[in-house]
Amino acid sequence: MTWCANTRRSLSPLLMLTACVVWGTGTLIYAEDASIKSAPGTRSGNVRCPDVSQVTLSGRLAPRYQGNIRYLKHIYDRETKGKDWMLSPFRNRESNKIWTGEYAWTGKYVWVGEYPWVGEYQWAGEYAGKWLDAASLVAADTGDKGLAQRVSAFAAAFRGTQESDGYLGIEGPTGKGKANWDVWNMWYAMTGLLTHADCFENPESLRAAVRCAEWLVNQFDPVSESNKRFFRGAFDGGCNVDVIDQFVRLYRATQDRRFLDFAISVVRHYPPIQKARETGKAPLVHPYVLFAYLGGVVELATENEREEDLAWVERVWEDLVERHLYPTGSLGYNESLRKSASNDHPAIRGKPKPEGCHQETCATVEWLLLNARLYRATGKVRYIQKMEHAIYNALLAAQSADGMKWMYYTPLRYEKRWFSGETNCCYWSGPRGIARLPRWVYALDGEGIRVNLYESSEATLRLDGHVVTIK
Ligand SMILES: [Zn+2]
Fold this sequence. Notes:
Helices cover 47% and strands 6% of the residues. The protein is built from 17 helices and seven strands. α2 (61-80) crosses α4, α4 (126-142) packs parallel to α6 (182-200) and α9 packs parallel to α12 (287-304).
């Protein structure tokens, strides 16, 4: 039996008992065929990820996934050998230099203080949560004992840096609750802890994430039009707004209504979200930050069964695809959205940022996460199509073949240079995308199994109590 990639492929439960699906050759990989349409009858929350411990990749994604395991171990081992990038910012809050700034969405940055934490950045708190997120997923999905030991030790050490009031950012007393990236760092702490809690059913990591959220609620609630302190974070406050997805996740885990109400309040009072809702246009801002808070709105809409919120995010998605998508399936130039997708150009003498400042790896990964959320929420094939496109052409292009190097920007043309610069975000973002690949190859819905990605693979999936093997 042969199906085209990206079409909906459902097998009847009867057939599934004995089905062994073999792909034909010559199948379209990046199907942009107008005849391939979203399946009818899909409904919210219909698509889910199967048990990926039973999915084995053997195509071109396989060596990249294996390389990512090596890389995640390498980053951790580097930590324990003195080059401590991930936990140092949390362990040395008092000695971090102060980085506080005022930001108003109509105004401009006024930086106060010096550069923080010598050789590092004010978002240095994100690395720990990002690593814990990626490593927890991979350790749980593969059963790799070496990685699982590292994850367990790291999660405990990370939780050990949480202050008695629940704070898990990197600021000293003067920057706590004020610094531009403080909420952002807490966001990633919650992300890593909640993934660890999910993957290993770890109540301590869940508790630590709850305490992070309580600290944020205590700091900022109520978030309202008249109380804009919450929106003074970096990138028009978008860095703070990004935290909403973890509040929804925490609500699902605890059923504590405070967390859901906080997320609702943030969405209701954040003007860029309200404007995007009215216009259906993507604001020309930092794409990574934008995709993260749009993803949070999707999570919130799903939880609240607010189809109308899903609908406007889908309109913004259409605008992004129409105006901003590169042929590689990723977006953004120089960490921003322009009026349209920028052409690549050769080096310009004297310019600090020459050619190739396209598709920051962080933006590529967050674009994938947004599409994955929309796919889960709507069941529409167009989202997984865009994911397949970006995975093979942008995500894999940003990772070296052995998995040990990453691009910051990946040029569309011209020379590709592995990243060795000052900012470190993408080193930790890329692995989060690769870590999810086995979870994206197949999906289950109310009617059967979907094969999402054109990838040689084998899966043993459970459906309606039956075991189905797919090759
Ligand atoms: Zn980045």
